[in-house]
Amino acid sequence: MKIPSVFDILCLVLALVVWQTKAITVVSSNSMAPTFERGAMLFGLPFAHADKGDIIIFKNKDANIVHRVISNDNGCYVTQGDANYLPDSMWLYKGCIKDDVVKVMAWVPFAGYPALFFQSLPIWAQCLIGAFLIFFLGD
């Protein structure tokens, strides 16, 4: 068994950082179809102001939500998924959406399916796969 290299450790740290950031996220539902289908990988940037029609990523508890801005009331965004009949309401988020939000700038269809599969596994399986990738495939 080989010892992980510095490159292996840096890749692991980068993966953990990307996994926790909202700047890159994977669409996990079809609420934004047909604009973004499940499995699309989205890339976002922080912004000063979002206009009606912009697509933003914001956090709801432990999940990233990707929805379109349908109105902006003094920096408090009201959002709605393209495939949803009604706007997001107070049941989705407490107060208004204004902090820690990024605007979607680019996306890659289907690129997020490996991440969705990995997230669906139990934590022990994630650790086992991660260890396998680090120790046996990293050179």
What are the main properties of this structure?
alpha+beta; 139 residues; 6-stranded antiparallel β-sheet; single chain; Umud Fragment, subunit A; elongated; 6 strands
Describe this structure in words.
With 139 residues, this protein is an alpha+beta fold. It has one domain (6-137): Umud Fragment, subunit A (Ribbon). 27% of the residues lie in helices and 27% in strands. The protein contains three helices and six strands. The chain has a six-stranded antiparallel β-sheet. The radius of gyration is 17 Å and the shape is elongated. The mean pLDDT is 80.
In short:
The protein has 139 residues and is an alpha+beta fold. Helix content is 27%, strand content 27%.
Tally of helical runs:
3
Provide the low-confidence segments as ranges.
none
Count all strands and give the number. Answer: 6
Shape descriptor reads elongated
**Strand arrangement, major sheet:** 1-2-6-3-4-5
Mean pLDDT: 80
The CATH homology group name: Umud Fragment, subunit A
Layout of helices and strands:
Blueprint: H1 6-20, E1 24-26, E2 41-46, E3 55-60, E4 63-73, E5 76-80, E6 102-108, H2 113-120, H3 123-137
Antiparallel strand pairs: 1-2, 2-6, 3-4, 3-6, 4-5
